[in-house]
Amino acid sequence: MSQHALELCTLLVDDIYGELSSRVLSTLFRYGRLTVSQLSQKSLLPLRQLKHGLVVLIQQHLALHYTSPDDGVTYYEADWKSNYSLVRAGKVMRLVEERFGEAAGAVITNLLLQGHVRVGDLADAYGLTAAETRGNAKGGGASHGVNGRVKCGDAGIGAENQILTLGQLHCILHQMLHSGYITQVTEEQFWPLVDHRNHVERAVKREKFPGGVKGPKQKQELEEMVREKMRKSREEAHSKLEVNGVSRGVKRPAGDTTVRRGGKRVKLDYGFEIGHTKEEDNAEDTFVNENLVIRVNHEKFVVAFRNQEFVNLSEKRIGSTTALVYAELLRRLEARIDRCKDDLAPPGMPDGGEESPSISTLELSATLSKDIELINSIGKAPPIKVEAKVQNISASRRKRRRLEVGASVVGDASSDGDEDDAEDGNISAVDSGSDDHWGDEDFGIPALGSPLARDQKNRMAEIKRHLQLLAEDSYHFVRLVGNRGLGEWTVDFEALTKILKQVELEGIITERFDGIATRLVRVLTEKGKLDEKQVSNISLLKQKETRAALTSLYESGFIQLQEVPRDANRQPSRTIYLWYFDMERCRQLVLQDCYKAMARCLQRANTEKEKMRPLLAKAERTDVVGREDHYLSKIERTALQNWREKEERLLGQVARLDRLVGIFRDY
Amino acid sequence: MASSSIGSASADNSGLKKALYEKCLQAPANQLFNQHDLLDMGIIPGGNPSTLMQCVQALMDEGLAKVLIQPDGSAVWRMVKQEDANKYKILSPDEALIYSHIESCGREGIWTKNLKNKVNIHQSVLNRCIKSLESRNYIKAIKNVKYPTRKIYMLASLTPSEDITGGPWFTDSELDNEFISALLDAIEQFVTSKSFYRSTAVAEKPRKGKLSQADIQEALKNEFETPKLRHTKARSSLLPFPPGYKGYPTVQHVANWVSLAGITDVSLGENDIRQLLEVLCYDGRVEKATGGLAYKAVRRPAEGDEAGSGNGLTEAPCGRCPVFNLCEEGGPVSASGCEYFNTWLEI
Fold it and tell me: Which residue numbers delimit the RNA polymerase III subunit RPC82-related helix-turn-helix domain (chain A) (predicted)?
């Protein structure tokens, strides 16, 4: 938590939920834990007003509260990380739209606006009192400018993607619950982490250590137990959901199922584990418990965003088709990763203390095969046939042929433009739905000899080659862990994240300084602490140049200097000076800069808006809306246009900065 | 009797001496001879050590042989060419002493301060001697890259060693940036041409194992004839080689290519090339492949691709703002009145 982060959070809340909430929030930020009366005192707000502001914050999980069982006093505390998540709202919506369709995007928008909501109420809002929801969405949407998708909620409900039936809504909710994008609200989620910890610790002490905790060993035991219990309570929220939350048996009305849409969703949701396919088929028939209270699970989205970053990185380094394969692999793994960084993981064991999940080529090909086929089918040469013939040719020639095959394949993909486009194309192709036998050929190779089997085998080999390419790259995007199912792959997220950070940092250094500085930083990264002379020797640069670059890097804090005195006097002349690069320090530095830059962008957007206030007031008048051409002069219209562009630019920049925050903080 | 015997002996010895000297000169230059080597030449009658001693002593007196003491205490000799020996004859004793010390340092040269310590002559005398030696063109002053301020002397006929000049990267004891960056660019281009699959020139590309000379020649021809064209055409379609590809260029390949391409007159060893490749690695232009044995180029996003240029922080004015630290609402600099934002938003 830093000054700039708090400034940013306050701005965000001010932007979205208004001045009252932001005032309460900034008071909480400034003073930390407060009771209601203290809060009222410090914020100079009357209690009645204060409660209005506070309730918004609590509803949105921006402020946490805990009633101490000892004295019965409720303390309030701001949760700055969930505050920060407000920035990501736009990205969250887009991701959901991409994966589950626009209707789901509308649902998640509503969830984001509501903070948390009971499933029944959500259904009511859609079904019985649709008008009210629309009003809400609009009200929220107008002030929801930050995410740059002002009309999302409104449009979602009104447009063709309107949710027609309760079944559809439940289907969407079930899918998102299952993939972890939304989660059940539990009481603990409203507690500050420290209180949660104390709460659990008290319980553990009462049960296991009635005589008090003695000695370091018991202390450690207690520590372990508390952590374990907190983990359990966290997992319970999810598992309870599996058992109780999703009740089966209520069939959706026959004939109403828009088969195409249903089929599409099942196929798109690759996040399901293999074993769940049976269940998955029934997904359309499941209803979510009406009394379940749900909210957006930002942690899970962070995992998805991280995957996107990795995919982009692999695309840049290897190629777009390989990136597609990688995207699929990561998406499959995503189902088994709940969060990027686990605070509750046992020490010394990252990634939740479990073995990092792996996936075999065979499993991967089950969901990926259509992609590859899609791309091949665009190419005019029948590469599959070429590939099949090749199998009898000697190894070296085969390699050459494969190259050619690969060429046509990859070339087609890259002509599709960026990865998103390709994916869209893929979705639409699947959507066209000529593949009713999808479920049959999912797993295992069909009997040898049939053309289908050969195709599939070739495809598998193709996929495997892409995976090998990923593994062989010096970034090691994947790692081979076993031979099951034509090779079992896992991803070393921690190492990859580190590379990602390094790449971004180097990018920033190159932009801020020049190529020489980046070279020096890389030298220092690899060699550790170095004397100025050694640095210039290794980097083949004049000592003068090196010194200038090192000094400017040092001044802005990207590299550090270590003094090693040669004698006890610590004379400067008798001291060795060693330069070194400390990634962690750099990361912090850049992160703070990011927060600050984001805050500045938002402030600037506000200033720009302030300048436009009279005109905006006119443009928003009810008689003007929809008839701008008639009521607004040409100058006014261009001014409005200019302002929109500026705002878009500034908010877009915030989103781009958020990407860096993700990389440097969350992944 | 005695005198005549000595006289005849010295007359004999002068013949023997010459024969011995000639024989030794036939051996490779700077070879060292010990007593046994000299006796084994079969010039000294009866292998008489005392005769040998006399001959060698005579040679040493004329400055044609030099005695050196091995670490184990045994003496060895080195023959000096006639013309080198003649130089000593015209020198004063001080000059000869200084000259011998400078000569003994060979291609490394000797710092005047060290020289003074060794010969133990007064500074002014030393300066005079050095001056006269220099004027006779026996010695020359050189510069050491490591210690540019030191005055270092070596024989005029020798070229300074790489330690002194700093190796191939130094021209006139200054690091030659242009030379290095040109080499880096050339090598990068070469490595890039070998690192990606291009659909245009598939068949001709050597893929496996070592490059033969003909391959290299051909590659060179391709490289130099149409570099621009290939460059622009290939950018968009750089495809990775399949996993397990072994054809990425090694240090040896690159070194071969550099020497054949005639980019430079400076002779570059494999170590120099390795150093260049390392620098390219640090620049993020190439990276190690095939378990560190070979190098491959790093794929760069196609030109005009947005992903290649900067990120969220450096694109915003704040990322490059010189007064970012001061920036604060109500402070001397603030977002609402920021000039950088003004220009950025006007674009």
Answer: 7-63
* Contact: A508, B311; criterion CB under 8 Å: yes
Diameter of chain A by CA atoms? 90
Domain definitions of chain B by residue range: 2-80, 91-169, 176-297, 312-346
pLDDT (tens digit per residue) in A511-560: 888 778 999 999 999 999 999 988 988 888 888 889 999 999 999 889 99
Q: Is A511's CB within 8 Å of B319's CB?
A: yes
Unique residue bearing structure tokens 């600050």: A596
Q: Please compute the mean of the pLDDT values over residues A246-270 and round it to a whole number.
A: 37
* A&B contacts, CB < 8 Å: 160
- Can you read off the two tokens belonging to residue B96? 């000869």
Q: Please, which residues bridge with residue B110 across strands?
A: B153
Contact A447, A456 (CB under 8 A): no
The hierarchical CATH code for the domain B176-297 is 1.10.10.10
Q: Which fold has domain B2-80?
A: Arc Repressor Mutant, subunit A (1.10.10)
For residue A241, name the pLDDT band (cuts at 50, 70, 90).
low
Q: Which of B266, B279, B282 to mutate to test the interface with A (most CBs of A within 10 A)?
A: B282
Task: Please say whether the beta carbons of B107 and B135 come within 8 A.
Answer: no
Pick the residue of A14, A401, A403, A509 with the most B CBs within 10 A to test the interface with B by mutation.
A403
Which residue stretches of B105-170 are H helix?
112-119, 123-135, 162-165
Q: Please write the tens of the pLDDT for every residue from B273-327.
A: 888 899 999 988 888 887 778 888 887 765 444 444 557 777 788 888 888 888 8
Q: What ipTM is given for this predicted complex?
A: 0.70
Residue A186 per-residue DSSP state: -
Could you tell me which CATH class the domain A3-78 is placed in?
A: mainly alpha
Q: Where are chain A's structural domains?
A: 3-78, 86-296, 307-489, 495-581, 588-666
What residues of chain A lie within 8 A of the CB of B318, using their CB? Answer: 593, 596-597, 600-601
The top-level CATH class assigned to B91-169 is mainly alpha
In B, which residues are within 8 Å of A599 by CB distance?
Answer: 335
When comparing pLDDT for A271 and A492, which is higher? A492
Contacts of A316 in chain B (CB under 8 A): 299, 301, 307
Instruction: Name B78's bridge partners.
Output: B32, B66
For the purposes of burial, counting CB atoms within 10 Å of the CB of B112, is it exposed (0-12), middle (13-18) or buried (19 or more)? Answer: middle
With contacts defined as CB-CB under 8 Å, which chain B residues touch A402?
242
Domains A3-78 and A495-581 share a fold: yes
CATH classification code of A495-581:
1.10.10.10
